Amino acid sequence: MHEQVFFDDLNVGDIFNSISKTITETEIIEFGWKYDPQPFHISKPDALTSNFGGLIASGFMTAAISFRLLYQSNGFQTTSLGSYGIDELRWLKPVKPDDTLSVSMEIKDLRRSKSRPQSGIATCYFKTINQTREVVMTMESAWILKCRI
Amino acid sequence: MHEQVFFDDLNVGDIFNSISKTITETEIIEFGWKYDPQPFHISKPDALTSNFGGLIASGFMTAAISFRLLYQSNGFQTTSLGSYGIDELRWLKPVKPDDTLSVSMEIKDLRRSKSRPQSGIATCYFKTINQTREVVMTMESAWILKCRI
């Protein structure tokens, strides 16, 4: 178990890092089939003749995996109260089978909630990189976290 | 098969609608366990004592299902070239087991691509509603589509 990270433990500029995960062809196709059945997510022949030249992961999958990697690699398990949204999500490079992703997250802004006592909103900038350190995705997200006090 | 919708068929202000889908408890927990294991997405007892008062769907799941509903309900299957990002995604209301979602999408802006011939970028505003017509999610997304000409 990681040490718990509460809202009041955070400072603007803090950076959190994640473990790595290799993306498999199987999960790309399974996720695509269930949630994002564009040809280049579910069909190897169709993907081959697409602009991408091969299978790529759904961007929704990359976003969710990026969040999970960061979440499970740090002490937010018992302090997260969810999120109300995302701004400026950018899929910069395709994520392909056998790519290995890891995530860093920087705290950009912090404000104590007025409406919800003992919670605060952290503006978080996620950056997801692959095994050659190319940035494949960035997103800014509003994370609601419990306060210690 | 729907009639194909190409970039040059679109006008600003056009609205597309989707079929409906009922969200099940099983898929909320399965998606959460795989991609977003926050307690209120994977554990009924933990969800009950959370601020949400019960299980809710991962916002990443709601976003992906919203896209799929709209995509498969209209003629974008062979004309979609993917997306480079999302702006202003807002999760406005929790999505709960047995909620039935449907989506409308409005074309907000259109610009022909300079870098990629025979394609254009449609700025699309997605609105996801539940069975009581509450808006549960909105997002603006940049959809790259093939041109006829």
How big a fraction of the residues of chain A is strand?
35-45%
Oligomer: homodimer
**Annotated CATH architecture of chain A:** Roll
Largest sheet of chain A: 6 strands, antiparallel
CATH fold field value of chain A: Thiol Ester Dehydrase, Chain A
Largest interface: A-B, 37 and 38 residues
Mean pLDDT across every amino acid position of chain A: 96
Count of all domains of chain A? 1
Please identify the top-level CATH class of chain A.
Answer: Alpha Beta
Explain the overall architecture.
The structure is a homodimer of 149-residue chains. Chain A is of the alpha+beta class and 149 residues long. Chain A has one domain (12-146): Roll (Thiol Ester Dehydrase, Chain A). The first copy, chain A, contains four helices and six strands; from the N terminus they run E-E-H-H-H-H-E-E-E-E. In chain A, strands 1, 2, 3, 4, 5 and 6 form a six-stranded antiparallel sheet that branches. In chain A, a hairpin with a 5-residue loop joins strand 5 and strand 6 (135-146). The interface between A and B is large, with 37 and 38 residues.
Topology, element by element:
2 copies of one chain form a homodimer.
Chain A: E1 15-17, E2 21-22, H1 25-35, H2 39-42, H3 44-48, H4 59-72, E3 80-91, E4 100-112, E5 119-129, E6 135-146
